[in-house]
């Protein structure tokens, strides 16, 4: 009885140290680290994945504003992967013992090499290896995923990337959500009204470098007879070679549109109190460009 009391007290004393702020279940311990950049500044919102010896993901999370990461895991052997925008991924191993702290200390990430930019000149979107998709809420519940099957675009790469320009034209009638009745309705006057507005067009105003491989492309989007300024949050993926050895460049980009900004109110449904599609629509682009022939 006395031994059990002393053992219980010993555990309580240990919990007043590094484990005090973490609730540790039985047979578990704590894994922690602090993520820093090369000048010893904390990296907030770095992504961390903890996997067990069989490669199964046990914990996924991020660092706090001070670069710290703390998690409770069952006692055992683990692999920790750390990643952050603009930095080279970091991997380490750790052994976590029951009711104890396993700290990797300060993890310093190295700045990743910036991918080589495409050469100055005229490029064009290659539709066969590109996609323009969207996601919207249906009656406030399930998500609808769709795409536009027909589009074209040109990019003029300047000597200074920030001076580059882009023009994209999308065939509104090519909208495709894999449900014919719904697609016909989306093409009607209730939605895109493709007979009056056959295309969606985007003209860029400027390219802005956000660091690393992140860029912001701002321009005017014309949809449903209305033009609004939108910004694409773009991730440049670098250069590659196609099957025939041709050079190509790739990027991913996303933006969020608010349908009321483009007077797409779908009045016949809203008049009956049916919110068919949510107020915002997420646009996702996966684009490959090739030199214009």
What topology emerges from the helices and strands here?
Blueprint: H1 2-14, E1 28-36, E2 47-52, E3 57-62, E4 68-74, E5 76-83, E6 90-96, E7 101-108, E8 121-125, E9 131-138, E10 143-148, E11 151-157, E12 165-171, E13 175-176, H2 180-187, E14 199-211, E15 214-223, E16 226-241, E17 247-258, H3 267-270, E18 277-291
Parallel strand pairs: 1-7
Antiparallel strand pairs: 1-4, 2-3, 2-5, 5-6, 8-11, 8-18, 9-10, 9-18, 10-13, 11-12, 12-14, 14-15, 15-16, 16-17, 17-18
**Termini separation (Å)?**
86 Å
Number of helices: 3
Query: How many runs of DSSP E, i.e. beta strands?
Result: 18
Low-confidence stretches: 1-16, 266-275
Strand content: over 45%
Task: Describe the largest sheet.
Answer: 8 strands, antiparallel, barrel
Backbone structural class = mainly beta
* Order of SSEs: HEEEEEEEEEEEEEHEEEEHE
Mean pLDDT: 84
Instruction: Indicate the overall shape.
Output: globular
Strand sequence of the main sheet, in spatial order?
8-11-12-14-15-16-17-18
- Global Rg: 26 Å
In percent, how helical is the residue content? Answer: under 10%
């Amino acid at each position: 009885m006395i031994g059990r009391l002393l053992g219980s007290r010993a555990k309580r004393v240990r919990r007043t140290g590094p484990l005090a702020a973490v609730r540790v279940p039985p047979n578990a311990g704590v894994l922690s680290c602090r993520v820093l950049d090369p000048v010893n500044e904390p990296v907030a919102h770095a992504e961390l994945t903890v996997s067990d010896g069989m490669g199964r993901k046990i914990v996924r999370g991020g660092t706090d504003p001070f670069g710290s990461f703390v998690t409770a895991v069952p006692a055992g052997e683990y692999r920790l992967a750390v990643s952050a925008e603009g930095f080279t991924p970091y991997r380490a191993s750790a052994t976590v013992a029951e009711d104890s702290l396993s700290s990797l200390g300060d993890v310093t990430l190295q700045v990743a090499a910036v991918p080589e930019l495409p050469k100055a000149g005229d490029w064009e979107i290659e539709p066969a290896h590109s996609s323009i998709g969207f996601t919207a809420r249906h009656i406030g519940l399930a998500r609808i995923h769709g795409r536009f099957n027909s589009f074209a675009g040109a990019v003029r790469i300047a000597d200074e990337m920030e001076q580059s320009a882009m023009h994209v034209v999308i065939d509104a009638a090519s909208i495709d959500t894999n449900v014919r009745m719904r697609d016909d309705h989306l093409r009607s006057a209730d939605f895109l009204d493709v007979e009056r507005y056959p295309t969606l067009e985007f003209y860029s105003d400027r390219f802005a470098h956000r660091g690393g491989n992140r860029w912001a492309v701002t321009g005017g989007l014309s949809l449903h007879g209305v033009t609004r300024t939108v910004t694409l949050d773009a991730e440049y993926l670098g250069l590659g070679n196609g099957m025939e050895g041709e050079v190509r460049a790739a990027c991913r980009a996303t933006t969020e549109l608010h349908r009321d900004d483009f007077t797409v109110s779908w009045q016949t449904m809203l008049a009956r109190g049916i919110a068919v599609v949510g107020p915002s629509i997420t646009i996702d682009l996966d684009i490959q460009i090739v030199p214009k022939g």
